[in-house]
Amino acid sequence: MIDKVMELQAENETLASALHDARHEVRVLKNKAERVQELEKNLEKYRNGFELQLQINNSIKKKNKRYRETIKTAIRHMKDSDHLGVKFALGVLEQVLESDSHE
């Protein structure tokens, strides 16, 4: 009888230890799941920010292209002028286009 009681006590301690370990594992897994959710939210924020930055960059590229085309058109129309101020402005515009093409 005493052997049976001791056996049951040992089994009870084993089960209590296993329960403690299982509870610990549940806490660890819960913390990991919360961290994954937090990282997924951050990823979505970064993804949205990245997409917004791409849209801004594309908009800037389109505007830059329009400005360059406008400058080229102005240069074509100014080339025949004999006016000193126009020649100076023409030189500045040509320098701007040339320096942009090296970047």
Describe this structure in words.
The chain has two helices and no strands. The protein is mostly helical and 103 residues long. It has one domain (2-101). Helix 1 packs antiparallel against helix 2.
Order of helices and strands: HH
The radius of gyration computed from the alpha-carbon positions, rounded to a whole number of angstroms, is 37 Å
How much helical structure, as a percent, in the residues? over 70%
**Low-pLDDT stretches:** none
Number of separate strands: 0
Task: Please report the distance between the alpha carbons of the first and last residues.
Answer: 92 Å
How many domains make up the coordinates?
1
Topology:
Blueprint: H1 2-78, H2 84-101
Helix pairs in contact: 1-2
Write a compact overview of the structure shown.
By secondary structure, the protein is mainly alpha-helical. It contains two helices and no strands. It has one domain.
